[in-house]
Design brief:
- With about 475 residues, the protein is an alpha+beta fold.
- It folds into three domains: about 200 residues, Beta-Lactamase, CATH 3.30.450.40; about 110 residues, PAS domain (Beta-Lactamase); about 160 residues, Alpha-Beta Plaits, CATH 3.30.70.
- Helix content is about 40%, strand content about 25%.
- Helix 1 packs antiparallel against helix 3.
- The chain is built from 13 helices and 16 strands.
- The chain has a six-stranded antiparallel β-sheet, with helices on both faces. A five-stranded antiparallel β-sheet has the order 8-7-11-10-9, with helices on both faces. The protein has a five-stranded mixed β-sheet with strand order 13-14-12-15-16.
- Pfam families: GAF_2 (PF13185), GGDEF (PF00990), PAS_3 (PF08447).
- InterPro entries: Diguanylate_Cyclase, GAF, GAF-like_dom_sf, GGDEF_dom, Nucleotide_cyclase, PAS, PAS-like_dom_sf, PAS_fold_3.
């Protein structure tokens, strides 16, 4: 029965004027973005439903404080309150169930509404849009309305906390409780306030494309970029983005604005990733969803939602690094080396350029692990990779092949040049001071690619040269100069 959801709605008794003004901004914004005729925030009082906030748009027939008996009224909002769930009616004239709906007296045939709950779970009322024409209400608008409902419920929680704080302070004063206890209670409330506000993190904004300035930015901009609403509103679009992101956005708009002008209904929302400067000088990654709309002056507006994706981008970067690099030494892994090697072999064939391979193996590495342990062995491998990286060019491709074996591809280099690089490596490794004062040496096989030789052919041939270097006493370079 609907009676069980009736309440005197104690929450509205302590709503501040600032909160009500913020709700007015919310309902005006969603009404303007949706191009609907009416936007309302309704509240339930006993057995009636009352207009609490009404959009200021011309043509709204409902006035603040107007009431309607709720039980059996036939109103769309009655259905939302009964089911405690979202209601979307595209055209009430297509269904007999709405024949007695008083909203139809104003020809309001389309409806989108969400229930608003008090902090204790009881129903405060509804937030809704009504239109005098058939309206399917887009997924983006439905998502926006849901977020606005969540923001309003957050305001109700904040107002309740403020009231509880005031009551607690009165109790403290009445009972002559020490001031430090009052401070403790206030700190706990501030922590709850912080947790609520941090959950409202997406930034909603509106940019007038004709006038090139922002007309609305939600308060969460300060959490995202460190700027106050006033500071962010004063920025030009070019100042709110990095140069590369400005170019990206302008290219998107150049492609889609003409399509929007031609047929506003055909252009879907745009989504992309951009970088934005913060007040502290940092640059952050942000996912933006854009939609073009005409305002009441027939000027084009960009409606945007911005979300911080810095953590996601950092994770993607780390995953990409781990997919191409050896986790211990920081050089490339074998899979990535083979991908790059195939590309270099193809380039070598196309442009008739020489290309050489080095295969390296640390001498008596097992002895290091057996004597000093695997942690010491890992340290040797890291130092080994650092020493070689200091000798190689940026164009050379250096990878860990497996265990203590490494491989180097040296583009545009003949066998003589490759031998010279290998001998530098041999000397540098022998003269590198190791933590355990053990002398570390390396054996190296060197080959230059013959015409049309495959990667597997090169592996076999360079492995043979490495075998010869180790069989000949180690700590040396053996090259196939045939």
């Amino acid at each position: 029965m609907i009676e069980e959801y009736y309440s005197m709605n104690p929450c509205y008794e302590y709503l501040s004027t600032d909160t009500i003004a913020e709700w007015q901004s919310i309902i005006d914004l969603v009404t303007r973005l949706s191009n609907a005729r009416v936007g309302l925030i309704m509240r339930v009082i006993s057995d009636k439903i009352e207009v609490f906030v009404a959009s200021n748009k011309e043509g709204n027939p409902y006035k603040i404080n107007e009431k309607e008996c709720l039980h059996g009224s036939g109103l769309y909002c009655e259905r939302v309150i009964k089911t405690q769930s979202k209601l979307l009616v595209s055209n009430a004239l297509k269904s007999d169930e709405w024949n007695h709906n008083p909203d139809l007296k104003h020809n309001l045939v389309a409806y989108l509404g969400f229930p608003i709950r008090n902090p204790d779970g009881s129903l405060f009322g509804t937030i809704c849009l009504l239109d005098d024409k058939e309206n399917q209400f887009s997924d983006d608008l439905i998502e926006l309305m849901s977020k606005m409902r969540n923001m309003i419920e957050g305001h109700l929680r904040l107002e309740r906390l403020r009231k509880q704080n005031a009551e607690q302070i009165n109790i403290i004063h009445e009972n002559n409780i020490q001031l430090d206890h009052a401070n403790h209670e206030l700190m706990k409330s501030e922590e709850r306030y912080r947790l609520i506000t941090e959950n409202i993190s997406d930034v909603i904004w509106v940019l007038n494309l004709n006038k090139k300035h922002f007309t609305y930015i939600s308060p969460s901009i300060e959490q995202l970029r460190g700027y106050t609403v006033e500071e962010a509103m004063a920025e030009k679009m070019e100042e709110a983005l990095t140069p590369s992101s400005v170019q990206f956005v302008m290219e998107k708009l150049s492609a889609h604005v003409p399509l929007f002008i031609k047929d506003p209904k055909m252009v879907q929302s745009l989504r992309g990733e951009v970088q934005q400067p913060c007040k502290n000088g940092e640059i952050i990654w942000v996912e933006v969803t854009l939609q073009l709309k005409y305002n009441t002056c027939q000027e084009i507006e960009i409606i945007g939602v911005s979300r911080n994706i810095e953590k996601r981008k950092k994770t993607e970067k780390e995953v990409l690094y781990l997919s191409t690099h050896d986790y211990l030494t920081g050089c490339y892994n074998r899979a990535f080396f083979e991908k790059r090697a195939e590309e270099e072999l193809e380039r070598s064939t196309r442009y008739h350029k020489p290309i050489s391979f080095l295969m390296l193996d640390l001498d008596f590495f097992k002895k290091i692990n057996d004597t000093y342990g695997h942690i010491a062995g890992d340290g040797v491998l890291k130092k080994f990779a650092e020493t070689i990286n200091a000798i190689l060019r940026s164009s050379d491709i250096f990878a860990r092949f497996g265990g203590e074996e490494f491989i180097v591809l040296i583009p545009e280099t003949t066998i003589d040049g490759a031998v010279n690089v290998a001998e530098k490596i041999c000397s540098a490794i022998e003269n590198t001071v190791q933590p355990m004062n053990e002398k570390i040496t390396v054996s190296i096989g060197v080959v230059e690619r013959n015409a049309d030789e495959s990667l597997d052919d090169l592996y076999r041939r360079v492995d043979q040269q490495l075998y010869q270097a180790k069989a000949s006493g180690r700590n040396r370079v053996v090259a196939d100069k045939a």
